[in-house]
Amino acid sequence: MANYPDEVLSNCITEIFEYFYEEGFGGVEQSDFTRLQEEAGMADELVFSAGEIVYAMPQLPKVTSVPLNGSAVLVGFKDAPDGEEVLFDFDPRAERATKLDYELAAVSGLLTGALNILWQKDFNLEGAKEWSDEKVGKFVLTIAKSAGMTKADATLEDAIRFLEKEFPLATDKLTAEFGGGLQHHLRDFSHHPSLVGLACSILSQFTCKGYGTDTAGRFVAFDLPAAAFDPDCPLVGRNVPEKIAFGTLFWAMHLVSDMAGSSSNPGKGTGIPGVVLSLLKELSSLPVFQDMQIAYKGEDIRIQQWISKLFNGTAFKTEDGKPIRFDLRTEVGLLDQALSQVPAVVANEVIVRCLYMLSRLKAELERCEVSKVSGLQKLKASHFMPYNSRVLTRMVTVSSTSFVLVNLATAAARAGIECEGNKVVFAQKLFLRINYVGVGRLAFALHADWGYMAEEMSEAWTERARRRQDIFDGFHFYSLDRETTRIAFSLKLAAINYDCGNEKNEVRKGQKRSWARAWQDSVADGLGIDADGYFLSEEDAYGALETVSRRRGGKVRALLVAQELVEFRPYSQMGDEEKKEYKGLKESGSWVKHEFPRRQDAVDLDAIRSLEKRCGTRFRELSGTLP
Question: For residue range 65-78, what is the model confidence (pLDDT) as tens digits?
Answer without folding.
Answer: 333 333 343 443 34
